[in-house]
Amino acid sequence: MRCCSSTNKRNITRCNLKGCPYASLFFVQQRPIIDQAQGRRPTQRGHTMQERYEDSQLYRIRHSAAHIMAQAVLERLPGTKITIGPPIEDGFYYDFELPRPIEDADIKWIESRMKKIIAGNHPFTVREVTPDEARELFKDQPYKLELIDDLVNGRVDENGQQIQAPAATLTVYTQDKFTDLCRGPHVASTKEINPNAINISFRPPSGAYWRGDEKRQQLTRIYGTAFETPEDLQDYLHRLEEARKRDHRVLGEQLELFIIDPLVGKGLPLWLPRGATLRDTLERWLRKRQAEAGYQHVVSPHIGNLNLYKTSGHYPYYADSQYTPIDVDDEQFMLKPMNCPHHIMIYKHQPHSYRELPIRLAEFGTVYRYEKAGQLNGLTRVRGFTVDDAHLFVRPDQVEAEFIKVVELAQFVFGSLGMTEFRARVGIRDPQSPKYVGSDDLWNSSTQAIINACEKMGMRYTVEEGEAAFYGPKLDLVFRDALKRDWQLGTVQIDPNLPERFDLEYIDSDNTRKRPLMIHRALFGSVERFCGILIEHFAGAFPVWLAPVQAVVIPIREDHNEYAERVRKHLEAAGLRVEADLRDKNMRNKIKEQRKMLIPYLLIVGDQDAANETVSVRLRTDEDRGAMPLNAFTAMVQQLIDNHSLELVG
RNA sequence: GCCACAGUAGCUCAGUGGUAGAGCAACCGCCUUGUAAGCGGUCGGCCCUCGGUUCAAUCCCGAGCUGUGGCUCCA
After folding, report:
1. pLDDT digits (tens, 9 = 90+) for A140-156
2. Residue A247, CA: closest nucleotide via C1'?
3. In terms of pLDDT, which residue wins out, A66 or A488?
4. Number of separate domains in chain A
5. Residue A331 covered by a domain
6. Nucleotide nearest to A262 (CA to C1')
7. In this structure, is the CB of residue A245 within 7 Å of any atom belonging to strand B?
């Protein structure tokens, strides 16, 4: 069984655990930062965007810059074998087989040489050539010869399937003294490129395989980017810098949220007290919302009998993303890679009436999946993580309504966190493909249920054909953060397959046994990854209700310690997470240190405050609010917390 | 897993073929301070690991481990 859709599109890595409905949600990486202001994005298979990136001037500039870079590389490192160099979402790259490793000095030289070539105002000229002419032109370029053969014959995949028709014509583009096999388009002349709007040093060269095949030649990929104006380039570089500053791995350590210790294991984060508080606060909040929405929480263990996963179909086909089974007496157990089978067994343990449905079973369930070492990344890609999982067992006539409720809950949850910029990505089946199971009726009604849900919610959504799970359509929630990076959050999927495999049923009103449908859903996806996203989203400055420490009391002199402690106790009794910094240090020093921790409120207390029962409130933003009566401050913060406000003052 | 780069004090990082330094943190004093670093002192290192070269290796070479970036965009 293959229950995740293979989202092998741009920026979304293919999931290893093809057996899991949530496979797509714990591994998705952020999209590169793109020039969103101009609305330019690459089109993706199966759906159209308002303006095709491929048709834009920016695309031609980048494509042309890639050729210019190849020319400069050949001049610097003669003997280099060139391969391909396309524009990408936020720039371009070119893959080379180099005669020696490339160094920083080379990159500098190449970049400055590119600027000189551009300044030469060379036209880009296109010429049609015959295959033989092309072979002669590129006789020293084996990769180009391979491309020519493929183009002339059409490409086939490893199963012999034709995936590219034979090309009718071949074209070559020339600028200055460099000619490349290319379909274009390019700028008419290098003068259309602003030499101050290109950069090839912002991202280090890296390895890449010829045709992405790890069995083939390892190449060196040099990345570059180019914009229409130097200001656009600066803006882009600035955003990259901002993104680096928000890196959740750096903030995670600075704010004492989590660490990853190799002795414990890579990909296995340890949550420090403050990080655990963050997690716990989020979890308790969602748990409450779910209970209000009719979910029942259940708990299942961390290992399960191998036979359970054999029944579900997850084993042994997906052994590559699961850990080796553990022998216990004469039985074998696996670390739990997903929660669905456990919830199914909970449903199955007693008969259900149609009146009981929908039954919504939820669990913050920790699962373990093998991720290749090179894929691990902070909290966003780990080997053990907790899914805010739920499985809804529904009658077919309830699917649409339940879908709407799930999306509503998601909208509420993300909206509460100031994550309003999100959209839905609806994956539907490709009617031409035979890989999907189930009747047309079921597909049509399920797909319609999802579309209807989006429409009724007034949610932005895109429909992507061929992106459904093989058993049913799905909806992914994609969030755009403050830096315009897209992150995939939760997913909602309709699944008639597992009910079949586990022979689930309910007794209908006519006293016949019917098969329920399952809806798999997760909103955060993985709690770990979601915390990582939140850290970056807020740049570590969490809303008051989420902040691990909400206020720190700082006495001005040692003899104010007593009052500081009194303030702390007062706030603690009012339900705040508060500390008093009574260390033997001076006040300025404490302010300097505590502001680095991004505590929402620093409460400075001295003689005047002690005399008047006030606190001097300094916000995380460095704004000094002056003295406030302690009771007024307490009431204000309590209200902000109760409202899950994103503000620091009410 | 593959390629590139990196690994020196708790943290951020200098440095050298003759076994090490700074700032911050920690600890001990002094200072008693109204909003971003008061002063002095002390502690702290198998310079990632294992091999090799060398009279001598933290430094050079090889392997391993760990981390970081990339390995998805197909003329």
Report:
1. 888 888 888 888 877 65
2. B68
3. A66
4. 3
5. no
6. B66
7. no
